[in-house]
Specification:
The chain is of the alpha+beta class and about 270 residues long. The protein is about 15% helix and about 30% strand. The protein contains three helices and 14 strands.
Length: about 270
């Protein structure tokens, strides 16, 4: 991994043009920043080799990033000792350019500001050309109320406006993934899809992406894979517990992961 330059491999800016189509096996996963973080990340690392591109959220400490990079020669993040936004991208193929776009600070004030939430854009140079991946984590709605008059709606709307600007300024095939902290049936989410021109690859799917708890037995789907110029087949992963190195069973996170097989309608991008 490189220094504060944030990307540990890079390629020149410019359009890739390679013959033949590929399927990109993508994973998005909120890894949970608290608890047995390092043992869980080590267990997660053993499962990442099946993917081509991995987008992680809540990987907050730069010293923990090497725990998950073993299967990947390429990738990047921003900041040290804290990772900006907790966002990390890993890839089998070269990555570059890579950028971090901070969301605006909108009240109410909250400790979540310390995470410096935003969106990470990464151009992945696949064997069939360039694919832009936007890895993001929006602020939480602490009331679980996504109605227009809720105090957190303005926060998320400002973040979605920033995200929409990034997306509409980016050409070519694109995937927006991560923990949006928005249920798919909310007006805010539907408005974002309309404004950004994205397709919800899990439209019509039922069930949560956040692990149900006694205090929240029926959470919505908060994690998403949204695309433009791509088709996708998705499935939930990491729903079951795993064995940590010391033999203890543990869930990898309070979220499930989403795996997506991304393809393009044509033979080149």
């Amino acid at each position: 991994m490189g220094g504060p330059g944030n990307v540990w491999t890079n390629v020149p800016r410019g359009k890739g043009a390679y013959p033949g189509a590929v399927t990109v096996r993508l994973l998005t996963f909120n890894v949970l920043f608290k608890g047995d973080v390092r043992p869980r990340l080590r267990a997660l690392s053993r499962l990442l080799g099946r993917y081509d591109v991995v987008c992680l959220q809540e990987l907050m400490l730069r010293r923990n990033v090497p725990l998950v990079t073993g299967a990947f020669a390429h990738g990047g993040c921003h900041g040290r000792p804290l990772v900006r936004g907790g966002l990390v991208v890993l890839s089998r193929w070269p990555v570059g350019p890579l950028a971090f776009h901070r969301f605006p600070y909108v009240r109410p004030a909250r400790t979540e500001w310390l995470m410096r939430k935003g969106a990470q854009t990464a151009v992945v140079h696949t064997p069939d050309g360039e694919l832009t991946v936007v890895n993001t984590h929006l602020s939480a709605n602490r009331d679980d109320d996504w109605s227009d008059g809720n105090r957190w709606t303005g926060v998320q709307r400002a973040e979605l406006d920033r995200l929409t600007g990034i997306i509409t300024a980016t050409a070519g095939p694109l995937a927006v993934v991560g923990d949006l902290n928005l249920p798919p049936d909310s007006a805010l989410f539907r408005g974002f899809l309309a404004a950004s021109g994205l397709t919800d690859t899990r439209a019509g799917e039922s069930g949560p992406t956040y692990r149900p708890t006694p205090s929240w037995p029926a959470p919505p789907a908060l994690d998403h894979v949204l695309t433009r110029g791509l088709t996708a087949r998705t499935r939930l992963v990491f729903q079951d517990d795993v064995r940590l190195a010391d033999g203890r069973p543990a869930f990898l996170s309070d979220h499930y992961g989403i795996a997506a097989d991304l393809t393009t309608p044509g033979t080149s991008w």
